[in-house]
Amino acid sequence: MKSMQPTYRLILAQYAGLLAAILTLIVFFGIKANNFLSMTTLTTIANRVPDLTVIAVGMTLVLIAGGIDLSVGSVMALCASMLGLLMVDYRFPLWVGVLAAVMVGTLCGALSGWISAAYRIPAFIVTLGMLEIARGGAYLLTNSSTKYVGSSLGWFSEPISGSGLSVSFFIAIGVVLIGQWLLHGTVLGRTAVAIGTNAESVRMAGVRTTGPLVTLYAICGGLCGLAGLIQSSRLSSVDPNAGIGMELNAIAACVIGGTSLRGGQGSVVRTFIGVLIISILETGLAQMGATDPIKHIVTGSVIILAVLLDSLRQRSADR
Amino acid sequence: MLVLDALTKDFASRAVDRVSLAFHAGQVHALLGANGAGKSTLCKMIAGMIQPTHGTMQLAGSEFSPKSKRQAQRSGVQIVQQELNVLPTLSLAENLFFSQLPSRLGILKRRAMREHAHQILSEFGLGKLSPDAQASRLGVGQQQMLEIAANTWQQTQVLILDEPTAALSAAESEILFEKIHQWKQDGVAILYISHRLTEVQAIADKISILKDGKLQGTWSRGKLNHRDIVAHMTNQANQTDQTDQTDQTDQTDPPLMIVHQLQAPRRVHGVSFELHPGEILGLAGLVGSGRTELLRALFGADRATGGRLEFPTGQFRPPFASPNQAVRNGVVMISEDRKADGLLLSESVASNIQLPALDLAKFGLWSLYRTNDARKAAQGYRDQLGIRCDSIDQPVGTLSGGNQQKVVLAKWLHRDGQIFLLDEPTRGIDIAARESVYLVIRDLARQRKAILVVSSDLEELTQLCNRIGVMSNGRWLETFDGPSYDPQRIVQAMFAGYA
Question: What is the ipTM of this complex?
Answer without folding.
Answer: 0.86
